[in-house]
């Protein structure tokens, strides 16, 4: 469904996407994971024809996006991070407008708008202004506007940012259903659990490069039995760099991060690590409030590959 | 085409839904035009001065009499040297010189008058049209009485001078000139009222064009570009909607000016207003592509619109401002809008006189639109 080859983009000499390869099969739900600034949105912008790449190729089905963008765009629906809707209009008016812009007319348009309102679960509130909706409802209309023309490929750029758990569940279920009905999905998110729930294959991207790709199980094998240790501190550390240097020395080069009073590291032997560093923290008069030891998951993989937390 | 029409209708509906837009579109221009149009009406006072230079011959006297018959000006007879000084000091609109040996010139098909002027003020435009009409009339009449020699030709202006002005209006020579003072005053009121319409048109359209900024910020612009509509369809949809909105505003104002001042407009009203609105749309779109925030848009458009309206002679006639300001006005689009609307108000149809505003506004439109489209397409 989507073939991206050697895609590159840089701004002011700074490489944002670097020789990216992506192959996504029809009907697949593909998760694209990466921290802020990893190049996810630029990649999505290029795939959807909004940003011109410096080099590379993008094939949507059999159509070359760079040569025939309008033809290629017929196959894709975009759910941007932003609420790309007219807030002073009702959900129905918004969907009617976007439907017309996708080339739908007359009875077909009305029917499709009714179907989409049902899919996103907003038939009862269809005539309310979008500006009066909750964040979650707005996000649902945002998705609705992208699926009006029944695209084969739905690209979703963090579609659940800043919404309540109930709306998130509704959105995830909707996307899951669309995927089960045969729609190919590209889903980017900061939330591991969403990607784990929805996606059959995941790509991890950082600094514009695809670092790893595969099913959740395949990715977890990259870190073996490594567990993630989070040590929550009572108060912020005064000199983080000094503490990090001491921790690295103590644990013979192991990688540590400190963010928002949480020390994080990976280890196959968490007890050994803790036995070493707890005396140091005590000597430094640092009080611990909680210690979490997590089994290998996507977060662990991400930390292992990038040295950063996904929400950095 | 479907996408373009759809965008036009959609945007118009959105813009006309806003009560604040209705106020800016119709209420404010009407109020301001009423106030400042009345100033033009009250400020009529003494007609402007003009000078006639003529030698002492019978035909010269009759030809100068034809000119002096125009009641829109106060006429003085002076020597050419004195006339030149008065013109140079801007104490008179212009000097009309009856050429020596006018009969020979008329026989040769040449104008018997020469005009000395300093700059093309509104009053000069009225005067020059009048003189042109008289020249045409004299030359045509000469054809009729050619066989009777100079004595016969003298009888033509003589009989015209002896006839009440109203009878001249029945003739076909540039009727707008012969309506005299009333026409000139109406044209002056209408042009001043139109000036405020132009200012509000610029405010409205620069504010309205800011929707493009908002759409880019809210990502609806980007979403539009992923739909079936091409980039040029989207652009022309927006341009079309702004242009129709501008026309709506102008049409209401023209109707208002007609009702209040009884002004009528010339043949070229529709094409000239269309060009003028297109220029304002292009300018507003260019402005939007150069801004980085809505606040910047509001501040920049206010500064640019108000200052260029001042310099362009929208608020007051340029005759009263210093030389330097008058020279600056030549590069301000509003100046050419006012000139063009003045021509339209006087129903001038002679392209040799009215070509400048058309050409200059067309050039401005192309320049602004090129910058706007290049900037918007670069962001793709």
Automatic annotation (TrEMBL), chain B:
<feature type="transmembrane region" description="Helical">
    <location>
        <begin position="21"/>
        <end position="41"/>
    </location>
</feature>
<dbReference type="InterPro" id="IPR013525">
    <property type="entry name" value="ABC2_TM"/>
</dbReference>
<feature type="transmembrane region" description="Helical">
    <location>
        <begin position="234"/>
        <end position="261"/>
    </location>
</feature>
<keyword id="KW-1003">Cell membrane</keyword>
<dbReference type="Pfam" id="PF12698">
    <property type="entry name" value="ABC2_membrane_3"/>
</dbReference>
<feature type="transmembrane region" description="Helical">
    <location>
        <begin position="193"/>
        <end position="213"/>
    </location>
</feature>
<feature type="transmembrane region" description="Helical">
    <location>
        <begin position="267"/>
        <end position="288"/>
    </location>
</feature>
<dbReference type="GO" id="GO:0005886">
    <property type="term" value="C:plasma membrane"/>
</dbReference>
<dbReference type="InterPro" id="IPR051449">
    <property type="entry name" value="ABC-2_transporter_component"/>
</dbReference>
<protein>
    <submittedName>
        <fullName>Transport permease YfiN</fullName>
    </submittedName>
</protein>
<feature type="transmembrane region" description="Helical">
    <location>
        <begin position="300"/>
        <end position="318"/>
    </location>
</feature>
<feature type="domain" description="ABC-2 type transporter transmembrane">
    <location>
        <begin position="22"/>
        <end position="373"/>
    </location>
</feature>
<keyword id="KW-1133">Transmembrane helix</keyword>
<feature type="transmembrane region" description="Helical">
    <location>
        <begin position="355"/>
        <end position="373"/>
    </location>
</feature>
<keyword id="KW-0472">Membrane</keyword>
<dbReference type="GO" id="GO:0140359">
    <property type="term" value="F:ABC-type transporter activity"/>
</dbReference>
<keyword id="KW-0812">Transmembrane</keyword>
